[in-house]
Write a structure and sequence with these properties.
single chain; about 70 residues; mainly alpha
Length: about 70
């Protein structure tokens, strides 16, 4: 069960990396065209927090698996 959860969490992290890059590129594009970026920055902050939670979850699972193996 933990291995499945780890796999899913790692997929979420990988997807998050791509989504963060897209959002950052969008913000750059909006800036370049002098558009308001406040909303896009708020979304980016939420995405970063979500990514942090996924990373925390992955690290917790890895610690649990490590404890099980010892």
């Amino acid at each position: 069960m933990q291995h499945e959860h780890l796999t899913i969490t790692e997929r979420h992290i990988a997807a998050g990396v791509k989504l963060l890059a897209k959002q950052e590129a969008l913000i750059s594009e909006l800036k370049r065209h002098h558009h308001d970026i406040e909303g896009a920055l708020a979304v980016l902050a939420t995405m970063r927090e979500t990514q942090s939670l996924h990373i925390d979850d992955r690290d917790r699972i890895l610690r649990e698996l490590e404890r099980q193996n010892h």
